[in-house]
Amino acid sequence: MGKRVLNFFAGPAGLPLPALERARDEILDFSGSGMSVMEISHRAKEYEAVHEEAIALVRELLAVPEGFKVLLLQGGASLQFAMVPLNFVHGGKTADYVVSGKWSQGAYKEANLAVGAAAKVAASTESEGFRRLPRVDEIRHTEGAAYAHVTSNNTVFGTQWRTFPGTAGVPLVADMSSDIMWRPIDVRPFGMIYAGAQKNLGPSGLVVAIVREDFLATARDDLPSMLRYKVHASKNSLHNTPPTFSIYILRNVLAHYKAMGGLAAMQVQNEEKGRLLYGCIDAHAGFYRGYVTEKADRSVMNATFHLPTPELDAAFVAETRKNGMVGLKGYRDVGGIRVSMYNAVRVEDVRTLVSFMEEFVRKHG
Ligand SMILES: *Cc1c(COP(=O)(O)O)cnc(C)c1O
Q: What is the pTM of this model?
């Protein structure tokens, strides 16, 4: 086998090795069927078992209570940007958007295309370059809104909500694409959670959604079938042929999380990774210049910083690459360096990177 790199890409991102090895071992003969999981009917009992297990593992890992449905959808988080307003903004209702970064802005823009001025910006930190999250007292909720939308982790700029803002009774809808399952959360305050899979869960294109049933009941009944949450919910996400191979990989990833000790264990690792990386940044604050101004808002999934010059940023990226570490170039709107440390990135991987960073500052600082 060729050597695997230390993968710090922001998405699609690295997946846990045991989940990939399991797929390799089962690729020609899945579950004694003599076929791969890709080559088998989505109505076959072998596939059905995988489908049910994936959903059951989402429920178990996130302790999803009764009264919530788990859906497996397609079209990435970006299709959810349109489906959420299309389903829930009707009958004169509005929707509030907390704009804290590139993707939350995308969600708002798409809602605007879907339902026009009924989509409202409840708060935005765009004028400050998204270097911090909006404070709770800056968020203006619209009375009687269908929902308030937040993005739990700002993948591009590197902020993350530790405590979600209250919404005075309005259902909270969260895009958790880049931090779902980084730790245990209480699902009960949410009307809906959705996440594109390619950061913490599996292959791109697949979306995991968790919808509260009383919120689901308020969704429209007059949309085309594939856009209607109620259709997917009533068919257990088997209305049409689901992305079976992606769901199979999701199953492998979630089974691995469970074997690792679940999300409590995941949180211990993720906090440790954040402590190591931000510890290094703060110890050399004149050289590694953190992008996020509020330390309490720093993301443990995506850390962003700049070196003193763009030339040093480029040298850092080039040298990490030579040392088997990939994906560290910052997003084009931000520049600098972005370290994505999703669940598949191990504490030892971040230790390796931090050693490199210590060495780099000794040479160039
Ligand atoms: C990556 C990402 C998206 C986009 O997901 P697609 O699957 O490409 O549509 C949306 N929201 C957040 C927070 C992301 O990190």
A: 0.98
